[in-house]
Design goal:
The protein is an alpha/beta fold. The chain contains six helices and nine strands. The strands form two sheets. The protein has a six-stranded mixed sheet, sandwiched between helices. Strands 7-8-9 form a three-stranded antiparallel sheet, with no helix packed on it. The radius of gyration is 19 Å and the shape is globular. The protein starts with 11 loop residues before the first helix and ends in a 14-residue tail after the last helix. The relative contact order is 0.12.
Amino acid sequence: MSRFFFDNRKSLINDAVDGLLLTARHQNLTRLDIDPAIRIVARRDWDKSKVAVISGGGSGHEPAHAGFVGKGMLTAAVCGDLFASPSVDAVLNAIVAVTGDRGCLLIVKNYTGDRLNFGLAAEKAKRHGLKVEMVIVSDDVALPDNKQPRGIAGTALVHKIAGFAAEQGKSLSDVRALAQQASDAVKSLGVALQTCSLPGSTEDGRIKQGEAELGLGIHGEPGASTISTQNSREIVATLVERLTAEVPADARLAVLIN
C-alpha cells in the first residue's frame, strides 16, 4: 500500500502546482500557459525591470522551489517530474518569459540532470541575445571527500540572498557574485529516520528501527553513516559537531533548520 493520499499519479504534479496557485496568500503567483508538460510558476507582478532569479528541479520536494517564488525571492521556478530535472525546453521557456534587459540568474542544485539541462538552456538563451548567469549550489557536507557535493536545503538561503539583491536593483554581475558568495559559504547536513518514497511505491526503506541515517540524500541516496540512536539531543550534537568543522571559528552564522 502507498503511504500517500493522491487522486491520480499522472496528474499529481499539476494538481500540486494548481493547489499552490490557489492557496498563495497574496494571489501573486501564476503558471505560465505554454504547454501542459511545462510547469513554470512565476510572479504575477513581474515587470522585467530587475534581474530575474530562476531556480527549479524535480518535483516532490515541495515547497521547493515553487513555494519560494515571490518578491525578494525567486522570479520563477521550473518544476520537473518527480525527482527528475525539468527539460531544457522548460527552463528555456522560463528564462525567455521573465528575463528583461537586466538579465537572469539561474540557481541550480548540484545534480547531473539539473546542471546539464539548466546549463544547456542558459547557452540557448544567450544565443537569443539574453544575459544569463548560473550559480551551482553544493552545500552538502555529508561526504568530506566528495568532489561533487549535492545541493540540498542551503539552496533556499542562496535564493533569499540573490532575490534580495535583485529586488534592490543590483546588476546581474553583483547578484551573481553575492549568490556565489552565499553558495560557497553555506554548509548543510541531513539526517533521517526513513528514506523517502515515491507515490505508488511499496518500498519500506532500509533504515532500521532505533537508527538514523546521517547525510541521507534528498532522493533517498545512501547517507554517510548510520547512527544507532533516535535521541534528539545526541543527533543535534552530532550535526553541530560536523557542521562546526566546516566553518571558520569566528564566522557569523545564520541557521536554517529544515
